[in-house]
TrEMBL record:
The keyword Lyase applies. It comes from the Bacteria. It comes from Streptomyces incanus. It holds the Pfam family DHDPS. This is Dihydrodipicolinate synthase family protein. Belongs to the DapA family. Keywords: Lyase. The keyword Repeat does not apply.
Amino acid sequence: MTTTFETQRAALADVVAIPVTPFAEDGSVDPAGYRALLRRLLDAGITTLTPNGNTGEFYALTPEERRTVTELTLEETGDGSSVLVGVGHDVPTAVASARHARDLGARMVMVHQPVHPYVSQSGWVDYHRAIAEAVPDLGVVPYIRNAQLTGARLTELADSCPNVIGVKYAVPDAAKFAAFARDAGLERFVWVAGLAEPYAPSYFSAGATGFTSGLVNVAPSVSLDMIGALRSGDYATAMKVWEQIRRFEELRAANGSANNVTVVKEALASLGLCRREVRPPSRPLPEDERAEVAAIAAGWSV
């Protein structure tokens, strides 16, 4: 029987939350804290989660910690169809992570961009094909940050791997996204704006139907306001939300996104929801910069 992935496709056309990974005082992953943050998201109405995403400090976690994060997420949600587990690194590691997620009940994986200084377009296809073919019963979502990649390459991948059902597109160029999506097949894939709320209005106008979010950890209602406005085509309201989150996202994006995760964790710490610590190469905010983040977080309805 052919898998249609209808439930998984619907889950991608939404706020795709990227949970932070909280650390305990000794620097280890804090399971209780992580569960509490997940429960807060779920209780607020967020249903689609990406454990082991970049906001979850994927590249700073050990293989065992990544497995733990996956396990905790699937236990807490109880519904693997809306969990998009981040996998990556070398092909055997990514395949093992995808199979682990599948065995726990996950129905989708997001494949992080290949970590290699030299990525050819055909090699990109080969990398993703090897992972997708290893888990044909899972929906597979490539995370695209490579501006050189063409839509034709995604079509090539999906022609051999029909379980490639969506794309997290994170090239900061709305015109390039519009062209890429149409070259690959606008209706063939679920297009997720992979640069979160700041890019969501422009990417939705070009065909995206979901967006990722790290901000959602802090203020789920704000992200839900954004997706609600975009779904109804109310771009005026969506841009009012955009104005509300603009400074927070500017702080995250500054200096080549050096503080992308740091700002989110600082906001959560200011609300008493988790510790502020991040792992190198990220670093906590200096004391004199924390007040602005706390003020923004306090001003939202959380």
